[in-house]
Amino acid sequence: MNYQKLIVPAIGVLVGGIAGYMYWHEIGCSSGTCPITSKPLNSTLYGSVMGYLISDLVFDFLKKK
Questions:
Q1: Euclidean distance between CA atoms 27 and 35, whole angstroms
Q2: Per the CB 3.0–4.6 Å rule, which of 33, 44, 45, 63 could disulfide with 20?
Q3: What is the pTM of this model?
Q4: How confident is the model at residue 1, as a pLDDT?
Q5: Residue 31: enclosing H or E segment and its boundaries?
């Protein structure tokens, strides 16, 4: 089994989740009406999804070269 195919997206999810949480912690939403950044869970999940998508895109791009 090719573990690189599993490790790269997992790292992307982890880094994206940390980035999403840090975005909520540092910037956030003061009014509470922002759908993504009003709660830390929403922001962390959104960051994790974006991290997965970006890592998968980069992995495929580097794999083709």
A1: 14
A2: 44
A3: 0.85
A4: 64
A5: none
